């Protein structure tokens, strides 16, 4: 059983079946990364901490939900969350880059992952054609909080949440968002801080009223 012990929280334990699937995902990601830019080359050696663990710390906030992963890129955090949840999450992966969409379709089929929809779409402040309504919108290293909320809002049900992986400037971004007109539709945001190995990660949670 995989245990991601670099995380300064309760240890994330992964069952052997999901452990195997995550290893297959990592193998495919590294193979495809030789051909297209899915993750930074400098992070390949730390892929389990920088990409897999960082994705899985969202699990307590999305379990059992309908989730839209906005600008998913290599399927992060969406695919690790889907693997570990045992497909209990209805996962919608949205990515504008066709090459990355090809990877997402390939790896989802190869790993026989269920309950996933993949969209080759560009977000706007009106959402996108065919956008689902979901309980949770996730995103990682895509844009400032103001922009992320504007893009996500048409897809997010009342009472739903944005769960965002953000860097060290997230507090200033959250304060800027809470001064905007759009913030009237949302409760005050929460920042949860984690450390994975020596890497600081912030999870920003913003709930729609």
Quick tags:
single chain; 209 residues; alpha/beta; two-stranded antiparallel ribbon; disordered N terminus
Structure description:
The protein is of the alpha/beta class. It has one domain (2-207): 3-Layer(aba) Sandwich (Rossmann fold). It contains seven helices and nine strands. Helix 5 (98-110) links the parallel strand 4 (90-94) and strand 5 (116-119).
What is the count of helical runs?
A: 7
The CATH superfamily name is Vaccinia Virus protein VP39
- Total of domains: 1
**Distance linking N and C termini:** 39 Å
What percent strand?
Answer: 25-35%
Q: Class, according to the CATH hierarchy?
A: Alpha Beta
Q: Spell out the helices and strands N to C.
A: EEHHHEHEHEEHEHEE
Structural shape: globular
User: pLDDT average, as an integer?
Assistant: 90
| Main beta sheet strand tally, sense and closure | 7 strands, mixed
Helix fraction, binned, reads: 25-40%
Structural class: alpha/beta
The main sheet orders its strands as 5-4-3-6-7-9-8
**Uncertain spans, ≥5 residues at pLDDT below 50?**
1-11
Radius of gyration, CA atoms, in whole angstroms: 16 Å
The CATH topology corresponds to Rossmann fold
Number of DSSP-assigned strands: 9
CATH architecture: 3-Layer(aba) Sandwich
């Amino acid at each position: 059983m995989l245990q991601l012990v670099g995380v300064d929280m309760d240890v994330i334990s992964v069952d052997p079946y999901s452990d195997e699937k995550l290893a297959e995902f990592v193998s495919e990601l590294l193979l495809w990364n030789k051909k297209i830019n899915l993750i930074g080359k400098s992070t390949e050696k730390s892929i389990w901490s920088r990409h897999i663990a960082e994705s899985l710390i969202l699990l307590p906030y999305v379990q059992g939900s309908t989730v839209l992963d906005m600008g998913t890129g290599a399927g992060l955090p969406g695919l690790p969350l889907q693997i570990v949840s045992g497909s209990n999450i209805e996962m919608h992966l949205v990515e504008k880059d066709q090459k990355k969409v090809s990877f997402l379709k390939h790896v989802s089929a190869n790993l026989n992952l269920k309950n996933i929809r993949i969209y080759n779409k560009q977000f706007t402040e009106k959402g996108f054609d065919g956008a689902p309504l979901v309980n949770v919108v996730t995103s990682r290293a895509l844009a400032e909080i103001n922009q992320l909320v504007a893009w996500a809002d048409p897809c997010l049900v009342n009472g739903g949440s944005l769960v965002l992986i953000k860097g060290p400037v997230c507090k200033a971004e959250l304060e800027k968002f809470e001064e905007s007109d759009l913030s009237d539709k949302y409760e005050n945001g929460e920042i949860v801080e984690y450390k994975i190995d020596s890497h600081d990660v912030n999870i920003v949670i913003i709930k729609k009223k």
